[in-house]
From TrEMBL:
GO terms for molecular function: FAD binding; hydrolase activity; quinone binding; sulfide:quinone oxidoreductase activity. The keyword Heme does not apply. This is TIGR01244 family phosphatase. One of its GO terms (biological process) is sulfide oxidation, using sulfide:quinone oxidoreductase. Its cofactor is FAD. Keywords: FAD, Flavoprotein, Oxidoreductase, Quinone, Transit peptide. Residues 154-457 form the FAD/NAD(P)-binding domain. Residues 3-111 form the Beta-lactamase hydrolase-like protein phosphatase-like domain.
Amino acid sequence: MPFRSLTPLFSVSPQLSITDVDQAAADGFKAIVCARPDGEGPGQIPAGTIEQAAHERGLAFAAIPVPSGSTPDEAAVAAMRSALDAMPGPVLAYCQGGGRAARLWALAQAGTMPAEAILAAGRNAGIDLSPLSARLTAPAEAQPTGGQKAPRRFNVVIAGGGAAGLATAASILRRRPGLSVAIVEPSPTHFYQPGWTLVGGGVFTPEQTKRPEEGLIPAGATWVRQAVASFLPEQREVALDDGTTLSYDILVVATGLVLDWSAIPGLAETLGRNGVTSNYRYDLAPYTWQLIQGLTRGTALFTQPPMPIKCAGAPQKAMYLACDAWRRRGVLTDISVAFDTATPALFGVPAFVPALMAYIERYGIDLHLRSKLVAVDGDRRVATFERTTTEGTTRIERGFDMLHAVPPQIAPAIVSGSALAGADGFVAVDPATLRHTSFADVFALGDVAGTSNAKTAAAVRKQAPVVAVNVLAALDGKAPVATYDGYGACPLTVERGRIVLAEFGYGGKLEPTLPLWLLRGTQPTRLAWFLKEKIMPPLYWHAMLRGHELMVAPRITQGA
């Protein structure tokens, strides 16, 4: 990840990964400052995990959390001054996008560095520090906080620049190029998350699953490189992390969900070591393959949390690819493999269960339904499960040599704590039109939408054109005209070279894209593997994210 330098001794970065800490150490940084509270966003690595990684690499560390959407208060500024005085330099500070970390540094320099020099340092790093001008002209404790900038207005504001946000923006602008569309996304990097299963299986490299966000922003759209701080639907505004606001005619919420690593005590602290891994994170998927390659005997545990989660088949796909690799090396019989899933069935659509059960038996996997991972002791290599049967609930401990863990997944706090949230915390939308149930000028899609479909990239590919058409109808003062049938797809990778391609809609109704005879119905095929490995990645990068709606034309209401 490229770090942005404000001075030779201070740089900022978006959220760090363990790999980024390695890079920081290699680049000569001596200390890291975390300006981001834990639990803000999907896949966020807790500060404690980064702290441990920093210390292991000989770097100093300080956590000075600044809530999203706020300006650092005097206590935080004082803590930053103390940290900079005590720490060796150069220092790397991070938050969600880097803005809060830069503002924390800027306010800590007030009174000791000329205001114009502070502002110039921000400009050189591509960070606008001018809203802090009043507080930079004298010691920070004597200055007012200043006011907000006037809101900028767009026809459409899309919160989130992941698959859902980019695909929707591209589909809207292909239909109506003249619209003003803003995409709010702090991350400089876009990830093809469906590829992480294949990274963990030794098929893809990590680099194949990421690209710069800048190159994916559709022509005609404005990239607002900030994080959403809060939604203000009554005012038709979105508050941003830098204290500014955007106003809109239509809002599309596509923020994704949050991987709640901290919900399982001990898990976050041991990820990436002690044999604990997860294909649900870019920086950990390579460790999955490393563990698979290194294990020749012992116990391997794979887990799945309660629904909803991203791609309900991904937890067991990691297991099947691992077992197949061990089988090919002739060591599978020396490895005890168990799958503990909190769900009442192996897969939510019964038609696909027989084929999956055949592989459970083929690999000799010990299957436990209604079994939830509740704690991890990495140093002892012990996982604790809570298992529910007709006789009640019990807790058991299992030792392991490898643990592939999947955390519970929840709506982002900016959504669950807003007027947009339904009872489950996700955005409350009509399941067919994807329009909000209370705010007619708000739509949602992807993982953050409160719908019962599978949360997969394939679902987004079908949802984006529906939302695009309905957004344009709403801008024209009309009712929604396109409907979504709940389609989702989960390529269940049961061995290297074969996949059960599960395609289904609301209620588990089978929704095959290709003729059933071609994919042998619900059985594993080499064709499905070919589609997963060779066709789906370029379809994602070059079609879906570009607004090319191949085989996903929206269903238009008759007479509309």
